[in-house]
Design a protein that fits this description.
Blueprint lengths: L1 E5 L2 H6 L3 E4 L6 H11 L12 E5 L2 E2 L15 E10 L3 E5 L2 E8 L6 H11 L4 E6 L6 H16 L8 H10 L4 H8 L7 E7 L1 H11 L12 H7 L4 H6 L5 H11 L4
Parallel strand pairs: 1-5
Antiparallel strand pairs: 1-2, 3-4, 3-5, 5-6, 6-7, 7-9, 8-9
């Protein structure tokens, strides 16, 4: 018997936060098909393309993805990721998240982020080099891992923002994470902001004059070199987004 935990919007789709199913030795894809088959009518749709699936606390992308086999007694968590609008906004479970791509601030990137932290103390804020993000989906998955770690007390650090930084860098060493993916004084950077929607709106209005158009699509070569991911690593990953999935897998299996 498999236990399925439904979080956020998934709970609203089924009217419960817990489902048990006889899916021993089946795959995650079989489980998703089963959930869609039993979903009540006239409830929130379950978008299986925008969810994180964790098996016993481990993101399925760090296992075999949809082909991951389930064993008796497994607990599977379904965590929706909802996005929308032209801005890079989304929800993970019940947390509002937004990415802000900020133009280089003439050697004052650190000071700029610090000033925002002081002005918006109710938001969780972290800065990541814009060269170290493959796109919104990559960011969503990494942030989702950190939010899952927060909920289940699996933090790599004492603070959510630091856990996010560490997972983007695939390391448990803060100094190495800052050196690898942290903001630097000469390049654009991305602010990851988590908090109430009203606060995110105020932040958006404040930083609007400083925003740039992110070129995340160009970062693959840099990321492969930075994390020493070879062509053989890429070819061995059975995925439509192999680099992204390799990075998320490394982030998911980090243990302090």
């Amino acid at each position: 018997m498999i236990t399925i935990k439904l979080l956020g919007g998934a709970k609203k789709s089924f009217g419960t936060d817990l489902v048990s199913a006889d899916l021993d030795n089946k795959t995650i894809q079989n489980l998703l098909d089963y959930l869609l088959s039993i979903k009540p009518k006239n409830t929130l749709e379950l978008d299986t393309k925008n969810i994180l699936v964790a098996v016993n606390g481990v993101d399925s992308s760090a296992l075999q993805g949809p082909d991951t086999n389930l064993r008796p007694g497994d607990t599977v968590s379904i965590i929706p990721i909802i996005h929308g609008g032209s801005r890079m906004q989304f929800k993970i479970v019940d947390r509002h998240v937004e990415l802000f791509s900020v133009s280089h601030q003439k050697n004052e990137n650190y000071e700029f982020l610090d000033s925002i932290r002081k002005k918006f103390p109710d938001l969780v804020l972290e800065g990541i080099s814009s060269k170290c993000i493959l796109g919104p989906r990559h960011a969503k998955k990494i942030i989702g891992l950190s939010l899952y770690a927060e909920k289940h007390k699996l933090f790599l650090s004492k603070k959510l923002q630091t856990d996010i930084l560490l997972r983007f860098a695939s390391t448990t060493q803060i100094s190495l994470a800052i050196k690898t993916v942290g903001i630097d004084k000469n390049n654009d950077f991305t602010i990851i902001a988590i908090g109430k929607k009203s606060s995110l709106e105020r932040l958006y209005k404040y930083v609007s004059p400083y925003l740039s158009s992110p070129q995340y699509i160009k970062n693959s070569k840099h990321m492969r070199r930075l994390f020493k991911i070879s062509k053989s690593h890429i070819s061995a990953a059975f995925s439509k987004t192999p680099l992204e999935d390799i990075l998320v897998e490394r982030a998911a299996v980090l243990i302090k």
